[in-house]
Write the structure tokens for this entry.
Amino acid sequence: MTDQDKAFFTKSIEQLKSLKDDQQPLWGIMTPKHMVEHLVGSWRISNGRARVPQMLSDEEVEKRRSFLFSDRVYPRNIANPTVKEQGNAPLRKESLEAAIAQLEDEMAAFFDYHKQAPNAQEMHPVFGALDANGWLLFQTKHMTHHMTQFGLM
């Protein structure tokens, strides 16, 4: 993990702070707050604060890992393969600002956690066990996808 990794995510937080509550996505059904809370969830898994099982077969995980470790980007309107019913999860935070603050905290926790436990691996429900570098790759692709969804990149 490098300072460049941290810089991308620090810049991402600043870009997210420019979101408006009523900003419409370029595609999809998420609101800005849904999107940020969705990002919070993936960071909580990557920093060990939340644990999830692998949700797909080993064969499916291997196929999806080939995407993760490639230069390909997430396509628009991609469906989450781990949920039966697509749609927005219930909101947890009282404001968009509070959701962004939690995201910033979860990111900091990620870097602290993996600095203290450099060999740690946390289970991603779609991509299987990932180390810090695998998670950084995922988070970069995932955040780029959702920030592009709202015209922030």
